[in-house]
C-alpha cells in the first residue's frame, strides 16, 4: 500500500485548512440564523402565554411594572410581566431569582450583560393603565386594555433589547432618536413580537424612524391621539 509522503500530507492539511476557512463564515451565519429562529419561537410562545393571560384578565395585558412610582430600575419590577405569564410557561429562574432563562432568553444575547435575558416589554406605552384616570394611587393600576391598542399589527409588545447592564437591557423603550435602545443582534435585525401576536425580524432603523410622521409610531398604543 502506497504511503503518503510528507509533502502530500502537508498539501492535504493545507487544502483542509482552506476549505475550513471558506466554510467558517457560512457556518457562523447558519448558527446565527438558528439562534434567531429560536428567539422568534420564544417570542411566539410568549405571545401564546399573553393571550392566555388576557383571556383570564378582562382582555388586559400583563403589567410590565409592579407599581407606579416604585423602583423602575429594579429587575423584578420592570419585568413583572414575566411573572404574570410564567403561570402558563413555567420557566425556571436564574441564580438571582429572575426570569431570564428558557423562553425568556434570546440565545444570541450576551448573557454576561443582558440582565433581562435579552427580551423586553414595550414599557413606555404598554406598561400599565389606570382603571380610572382620576385615581392616582399606585395600587389602582391594571394591565393595558388590549382593545385600546388602535393598530395591534403595528404595535411592539416584546422585542430584542440591548446587551448591556443598564435597565434598557430589560425593557423595550421608545427610540427618542437613539438606535441603541433596541437590540440588533440577529445579523443586524431585531426580533419583534407585535401586539396581535405575530413575530417578525425588523430593521432597527425602521423601528427608530417610525411611520406616518411619528418617530415612536411602532411603540404607540393609541396612534390616533398621540404624537
Describe what this molecule looks like in 3D.
- The protein is built from 5 helices and 7 strands, in the order H-H-H-E-H-E-E-E-E-E-E-H.
- It has helices at residues 6-55, 75-78, 80-89, 123-126, 204-209, and strands spanning 119-122, 129-130, 141-142, 156-160, 171-172, 190-194, 199-202.
- Strand 6 and strand 7 (199-202) form a beta hairpin.
- The longest helix has 50 residues, at 6-55.
Features of the shown structure:
alpha+beta; two-stranded antiparallel sheet; 5 helices; 11% strand; elongated
Short description:
The chain has 227 residues and is of the alpha+beta class. The protein has five helices and seven strands. The radius of gyration is 22 Å and the shape is elongated.
What topology does this entry show?
Layout: H1 6-55, H2 75-78, H3 80-89, E1 119-122, H4 123-126, E2 129-130, E3 141-142, E4 156-160, E5 171-172, E6 190-194, E7 199-202, H5 204-209
Parallel strand pairs: 1-5
Antiparallel strand pairs: 1-4, 2-3, 4-6, 6-7
Helix pairs in contact: 1-3
Ranges where pLDDT stays below 50 over 5 or more residues in a row are 70-76
- Structural category is alpha+beta
Count of helical regions: 5
What integer is the average pLDDT?
81
Which sheet architecture does the biggest sheet show?
5 strands, mixed
| Helical coverage, percent range | 25-40%
Number of strands: 7
| Biggest sheet: strand arrangement | 5-1-4-6-7
